[in-house]
């Protein structure tokens, strides 16, 4: 079988015209090593195999290998093969550095103003797992065996059309499964044609901003709110107006005559992110009335409503009023796993056809097999069973973390919330630098997010978001003690009692 290495060497041999064939092969392999195409430790083909692939004699390959080994570029391990050495020999030729870019090239390579602004406010972390990463479920608890069994069944019956782009809106089977599930679980009443399957909430927001907003339009966002949504909106050229959130959720301000009505209003009413507040019924009714009066669209992000640990489920905002001007967004990133990359929008009838067609035009829907597998997963009851199982598990972890906070820091350190979701807020005093604490904790392997980074205005609460879903019970206490040591180094007055000394590894 031909390899990429063979193709590369053939190209190099054609470009090197002088010298014997074994010398040309030696130079081609050596150049590949020096340029990093053949990395340290990579295995070279056996002489017989390479000779067959290049249609040259084995002696030619052996001679080239012998020269490379003599100069220290490759080494042979008995019974294992021939490998590129870890360190280049002294005096080896290095690759020629390209000349510095000209002024014109630098201008051409410069990012746009919105690209630069996006990176300046970016909050995506290179770490997406472990204590206490907020917003991440326990992906280890996912029923992989059940999923694989359904997936094998779907693939066995695969039709040719399932291997091309998906139809408008996504898999009909998944949209119907969502209609049935949302009616029972979230009181959302809709038809399959109102649902558009997207690759994550960010894509859904990006599409809505493009379809419903012109550059310069005003958009209301919660204060505080999820930085990812704000960045997607900002890069589309809209003007963000932060609207205060309190214990009753978003508090819509009265519109003055001189104020421009918002085109979109983004809310997380069932479990506000990040504070955990639940929007009161009075606020919900006021918000819907304002949206209908001003011609605004309310975008309801129902990102983790399945994980409520006490009380009755809270109906979606979309279900309160017939023909409500609400676009409902849900995701499987929190209930199953983020890498699945499946979210969905429930659109009003007046928007559904246009947005569905625009989604196909801009993003070209696909992942038919995954969507069909998920549809069966929901339809056969596995999804509801998984939610019930994870709700019990997360409830235990939440209780354990809550007890640790109360024991070491006292009740004032627990920000009030709705006893739901996948994280707690560790409340800190106003003079605390939560960004600095988060950075130091990250150096200790503990990943938290500073509450202050979720605000747009200068007046910000201080705290740390502690995600408990992706930490098993045995790991919560040691991880929390590590975080407490970071706090104790800078703000010892926050602790109610001295910390125990860290365990010493005697091995």
List keywords for this structure.
3-stranded antiparallel sheet, DNA-binding transcription factor activity, 507 residues, 14 strands, 8-stranded mixed sheet, pyridoxal phosphate, single chain, Arc Repressor Mutant, subunit A, 3 domains, GntR family transcriptional regulator, 16 helices, Aspartate Aminotransferase, domain 2, Aspartate Aminotransferase, domain 1, alpha/beta
What does this structure look like?
There is one protein chain. With 507 residues, the chain is α/β, with parallel strands linked by helices. It folds into 3 domains: 4-84, Winged helix-like DNA-binding domain superfamily/Winged helix DNA-binding domain (Arc Repressor Mutant, subunit A), CATH 1.10.10.10; 139-381, Aspartate Aminotransferase, domain 2 (3-Layer(aba) Sandwich); 385-494, Alpha-Beta Complex (Aspartate Aminotransferase, domain 1), CATH 3.90.1150.10. The protein has helices at residues 4-15, 21-34, 47-54, 58-70, 103-109, 113-120, 144-156, 172-185, 201-212, 227-235, 281-294, 349-363, 368-379, 382-409, 434-443, 473-490, and strands spanning 43-44, 74-77, 81-84, 195-198, 218-223, 239-246, 249-250, 264-267, 297-301, 326-331, 343-346, 423-427, 449-450, 463-467. Helix 9 (201-212) packs parallel to helix 10. The two termini are 48 Å apart. The mean pLDDT is 88.
CATH topology name of the largest domain, in short, is: Aspartate Aminotransferase, domain 2
Helix content: 40-55%
Class inferred from helices and paired strands? alpha/beta
Order of strands across the biggest sheet?
4-11-10-9-8-5-6-7
Mind telling me the CATH class of the largest domain?
Answer: Alpha Beta
What does the oligomeric state look like here? Answer: single chain
- Using the alpha-carbon principal axes, give the shape: globular
Name the helix and strand elements from N-terminus to C-terminus, one letter apiece: HHEHHEEHHHHEHEHEEEHEEEHHHEHEEH
Low-pLDDT parts are none
CATH superfamily of the largest domain: Type I PLP-dependent aspartate aminotransferase-like (Major domain)
Radius of gyration: 29 Å
Estimate the mean pLDDT confidence: 88
* Largest sheet entry: 8 strands, mixed
Domain HTH gntR-type: 19-87
Family: In the C-terminal section; belongs to the class-I pyridoxal-phosphate-dependent aminotransferase family.
Protein name: GntR family transcriptional regulator
Organism: Sodalis praecaptivus
